[in-house]
Amino acid sequence: VQLQASGGGLVQAGGSLRLSCKASGRIITRNIMGWYRQAPGKQRELVAIVTRGGATNYADSVKGRFTISRHNLTNTVDLQMESLKPEDSAVYYCRAYLAGDTNNYNYWGQGTQVTVSS
Question: Which residues, including other chains, have CB under 8 Å from residue 57's CB and lie 6 or more apart?
């Protein structure tokens, strides 16, 4: 599975960005797709995930500001980010995995940089 992420960039605090990730290859449609981020010197952390059925889970730090959406026909997952804060600055990674079977199905995209200036 290949995950191609796009949409990162530089934005001022309070601004918006939209990330998009397209999956291709050996796609298992019941996978979970989502976004994670990693800031310098910190561990990679969950931002938001979405199941094929549309169930979502968000990190507390982004609830009410970020919206994840999934488009099953095109195998894409988007992350709409509003009211961005400097602490949202990180490399954002797209992920596709099967719950309970990450040893066999767990893929990451190449990452896209999001920088929020104060």
Answer: 46, 48, 49, 50
Say if residues 25 and 78 touch (Cβ distance below 8 Å): no
How would you list the strands of the sheet with 76-81, edge to edge? 2-6, 17-24, 76-81, 66-71
Rounded Cα distance between 53 and 84, Å, is 27
* Two structure tokens written together for 3: 């995950």
pLDDT digits (tens, 9 = 90+) for 39-85: 999 999 999 999 999 999 999 999 999 999 999 999 999 999 999 99
- Cα–Cα distance for residue pair 107/2, rounded to 1 Å: 8
The strand pairing partners of 110, in sequence order, are: none
The C-alpha atoms of residue 2 and residue 79 are separated, in whole angstroms, by 18
8 Å CB contact between 46 and 22 = no
